[in-house]
């Protein structure tokens, strides 16, 4: 039970008001009746219904200084302090003169009677169910009424379900008794033997099914392994073929590159040195026979092969060999062509 209400600098007043079970405050206007009531509400709830709820607004509405304190005694002293610091207002909590956090303050309120404030006018505006909830919050029963009612309803549903099952079982039993199904033929030993025989057949069938599954699994695994080996072999062959083709392309490219380099070198060398072209032709074909050689039939055998002048085909082949060796189609072809033409013409004279 709350035995005292206190206020310091609350609405310009400082007071400690003793309280009993029932209290009636009387006095002239401005004597502090409302101040005591509002201080008690603010101390318990942390705000006044219908008024401000932020710390700065509360201090501005009810405090005349930069701080104010409200509190009450319920076995111990509970206090709320509103203090301005610069532009902000903070709220502090004390229990029996010692500072505590808000959570500890609320928990301690629950341990000391959990005092409540009821606004009668607001209570009357509530619906019937809200009023019941509000009353239960003020005077809570030993247990959670809603939870208890839910458990009762759930138990009723279970009982109804069991009753329905019992009725269904009784009906089924009655039908069986009325039908009087015939007993199986043979003695108990015959029936037992038949059961054992059926059980053994079932065991054998299960074993055969398991064996078949194992064999099928082995077959599938073998096929899978063979297919994988075949795929791996195809991949390896393809890879080896690609590598061989790559090496062949590289070899051809290297040869072509080397030939181009030689051709360029030869062409450059022959072009830079006047007279080298004719010397190269002489080196390849041999020196052209002199008149004395031609007169006495002294023909030399050169790399291109000097033969009787009447063999035009071999002369043309000599031109082709010179073109290929010299690497210059224009200059070499011209020199060799003139030379071979002279040889052919002189041979016919």
**Computed structural class:** alpha+beta
Pattern of helices and strands: EEHHEEEEHHHHHHHHH
What is the end-to-end distance?
156 Å
Strand order of the largest sheet: 2-1-3-4-5-6
Sheet bearing the most strands, described?
6 strands, antiparallel
- Overall helicity: 55-70%
Low-confidence runs of at least 5 consecutive residues: 299-310
Count of β-strands: 6
Q: Return Rg in Å.
A: 61 Å
User: How many helices in DSSP terms?
Assistant: 11
Describe the structure.
The protein is of the alpha+beta class. The protein has three domains: 4-138; 208-272; 274-348. The chain contains eleven helices and six strands. It has helices at residues 33-45, 55-62, 102-111, 120-124, 128-138, 145-179, 188-272, 276-285, 291-295, 312-326, 331-348, and strands spanning 4-10, 13-18, 67-74, 76-85, 88-95, 98-100. The longest helix is centred in the middle third of the chain and has 85 residues, at 188-272. Mean pLDDT is 79; it is low at 299-310.
Please describe the topology of this protein.
Blueprint: E1 4-10, E2 13-18, H1 33-45, H2 55-62, E3 67-74, E4 76-85, E5 88-95, E6 98-100, H3 102-111, H4 120-124, H5 128-138, H6 145-179, H7 188-272, H8 276-285, H9 291-295, H10 312-326, H11 331-348
Antiparallel strand pairs: 1-2, 1-3, 3-4, 4-5, 5-6
